[in-house]
Amino acid sequence: MTTTSDLKREATPPALASPPLRRGIGLGGAFTIAWRAIIGTPMRSVLTALGVIIGVAAVVALTAIGQGSTAGVTDRLESLGTNLLTVQSARGGGGGSLVRGGPRQTITVKDAEALAAAFGDRVSGVAPTVNSNVQAKLGRVNTQASVVGTWPAYAAVRNSPVEAGDYFTQADVDGRKRTAVIGHQVLVDLWGEGAADTDALNQKIRLGSVTFTVVGVLPDKGNSGFGNANSQVLIPLSTFLQRFSRTNSAGGQPTVSNVYLSASNAKDLTQLQTDVTDLLSVRHEQTDPENLDFQVQNQADSLASLNAITSTLTILVGAIAGISLLVGGIGIMNIMLVSVTERTREIGVRKALGAKPRDILTQFLVEASLLSVGGGVIGLGLGIAAAYAGNFFGIAPVFSATPIVVAFIFSALVGIFFGYYPAARAARLDPVDSLRYE
């Protein structure tokens, strides 16, 4: 009768009959064997690590682009003015009534004058605005422009100094003068690409059917996405109300779209917001804070809300991208299981030569870890390259160490976690059955 020892003697080839390896193959040996197995089948190795590569690249690229978007929004808002309060009509016009075409205009020029008088020592400026889209013409050349009627303080309040010339003055506002400050894009459209800022000074342009003299040119602010300052033409508020459009409140006073106030001290912004609300509540004879016909918005609150939204979206998209890391880990586990099956006889030979179960476990665990770590390194490179591609869409990526380190560590842990089961299965194989496996 054939015994188990007889089977072991028959299954062990003479060439492999050597003294057992008492110390095992060691970590260095496991690394060498794993590396040879990986480079021996390069295409399968790349496909195995593809899920990890895509996952890491997606996490790095999306978080960098998301943080870049947040920084871009912050810069653009700050470029429109700092320590800013915006007073405007409430949606629905107060009392919950809806008016076709938007909220009923309730903020008047008198309100702006009252704010300037009451808080002149606490603000760097007060600037009411009202705007309309018109055709700007120079001879036979024309372009679409947003004409904004405002006060000279607009320059300080909205961080809009001129590049050439000067702003219109308070005397221009009082005298309803037809003077204009044009944006950079209006200059380019009317005077041509490469025109100097000074080319437009003291020149006559037509806004609609009204002739204006250009007294100043604004610098190129880029496409901020908030009204595009490059396409604006600033004129005295009084001139706008007389020449373009005028809407009166219930009391017969001319209204404006917004009133901007810039606090002299950032620490006073919240208290100033409260005081402005109280003053306008008295002027509008309204006592219910939940039903005011106006609203006072704090730029800091708006900025915090936008940053919170973009940060949440970045985390959400990053988490979704992280799922592909888990899918990649499952792919590694599947391929490693196949590898264990294909290399069953090799495992039997190593055990016959004295390799212990922990040596086999280490060998396959190192192989899975190399696949995931290698995929993580490749993914980092691809993610950084993909993030820089956001420049083509006007989004400059912002990299931070945390998501990069987390993505890389997570990719390594994925290899260890999902590689353990195939490695443990290989370690448990019976050497006799392994040697007889075909």
Describe this structure in words.
With 438 residues, the protein is an alpha+beta fold. It has helices spanning 4-11, 26-40, 42-79, 109-119, 154-157, 170-174, 184-191, 237-243, 269-283, 299-342, 344-352, 357-388, 401-427, 431-435; strands at residues 84-89, 123-138, 141-150, 164-165, 179-182, 204-207, 210-217, 232-236, 258-263, 294-298. Helix 2 packs across helix 12 (357-388) and helix 3 runs antiparallel to helix 10 (299-342). It starts with a helix and ends with a helix.
Indicate the overall shape: elongated
| Spatial order of strands in the largest sheet | 2-3-8-5-7-6
Helix share bin: 40-55%
Number of strands: 10
Overall mean pLDDT score?
81
**What's the gyration radius in Å?**
36 Å
What string gives the helices and strands in order? HHHEHEEHEHEHEEEHEHEHHHHH
Report the sheet-strand fraction.
Answer: 15-25%
Low-pLDDT segments: 1-23, 93-101
In whole angstroms, the N-to-C terminal distance is 25 Å
Described by strand count, sense and barrel closure, the largest sheet is: 6 strands, mixed, barrel
- Class by SSE composition: alpha+beta
Secondary structure tally, helices: 14
